[in-house]
Amino acid sequence: MAACIFCKIIRGEIPALKIFESEKTLAFLDIGPLSKGHSLIIPKYHGAKLHDIPDDQLSEVLSVAKKIALAQNLENYNLLQNNGRIAHQVVDHVHFHVIPKPNETEGLG
Ligand code: 5GP
Ligand code: ZN
Predict the structure, then answer these.
(1) pLDDT of residue 19
(2) Where are the domains of the chain?
(3) Residue 95 has pLDDT above 60, yes or no
(4) What mean pLDDT is predicted for residues 85-102?
(5) Does the interface predicted TM-score (ipTM) exceed 0.95?
(6) Ligand 1: distance of its center to the CA of 31 in Å?
(7) Ligand 1: residue whose CA is nearest its atom 24
(8) Taking a C-beta distance cutoff of 8 angstroms, is the pair 101, 35 a contact?
(9) Where does 5-100 sit in CATH, by number?
(10) Residue 104 Cα to ligand 2 middle (Å)
(11) Theoretical Cys-Cys bridge with 92: which of 21, 38, 48, 52, CB 3.0 to 4.6 Å?
């Protein structure tokens, strides 16, 4: 979708720190991280909400989330996916947040 910011990242039209890419899935670091290493996993198929995406385009998302958790050696983290403004969705291209939860001695640094 031409105007979609995440589709622009997929097409390489705006930069992102990519951490995983396959034919149908992309993961990259969030530009406004809630904690160090906060990343987003997206299907390359454009759709605003989870129910807009065909199952086969979502099939890698959980395994990519596991790869990120293992690669970042995460012990505490949230996997989060928002749908709709009231549910705090800002970008209308389906995305899954992987949000590390550092212990109290760690922060954003
Ligand atoms: P939402 O509230 O829609 O679930 O989350 C959208 C997320 O996308 C936010 O955490 C925000 O920081 C991130 N984001 C928005 N624009 C960009 C961008 O251009 N690049 C990257 N890497 N992340 C973005
Ligand atoms: Zn899009």
Answers:
(1) 98
(2) 5-100
(3) yes
(4) 98
(5) yes
(6) 6
(7) 31
(8) yes
(9) 3.30.428.10
(10) 36
(11) 48
- Cβ(79) to ligand 1 under 6 A? no
Ligand 1 within 6 A of 18 CB?
no
Distance, CA of 83 to chain centre: 13
Q: What is the pLDDT of residues 38-52, one digit of tens each?
A: 999 999 999 999 999
What pTM, to 2 d.p., does this model score? Answer: 0.95
| DSSP line for the chain | -TT-HHHHHHHTSS---EEEE-SSEEEEE-SS-SSTT-EEEEESS--SSGGGS-HHHHTTHHHHHHHHHHHTT-SSEEEE---SGGGT--SSS--EEEEE---TT----
